[in-house]
Amino acid sequence: MQEHLLVPIDGSEQAREAFEYALDRFPDAELTLLSVVDPADAVVSEPITGAYESPAGTAGAGAELLNELETTATERVEETASEARAAGHDADSEVVVGQPGRAIVVFADERDCDHIVMGSHGRSGVSRVLLGSVAESVMRRAHAPVTVVR
Hints:
This protein is an alpha/beta fold. 47% of the residues lie in helices and 20% in strands. The relative contact order is 0.22.
């Protein structure tokens, strides 16, 4: 029976290393490459000002940015899936919107993934304490084995 691997792809060097590790170490595995778009990344960085601006304008700008992030994520994950197929793997690509750690675990459960291979994200110090790590969150919550590639 072919093993089904989930490989989260976020454009980082660590995610790339995890992808290459999965290709090398699991040559017969079916790969699902997942990109998670965090809605928090779509928060408008500059406030909209002006006497006639409404809160709806802010929401619209955030929705537009979220759509752009989804488009970029889709292009990135589809390109990576194409690379996997060129290397002889059965691979598909998916993009979901949500909090990354939680979305990866839910996706792996819903798709019956046998293993998750992901990159470490290298946070350290206060940032790691306050924000946590996606890889750590997945390791704590996932029902499938998780391999974290550094």
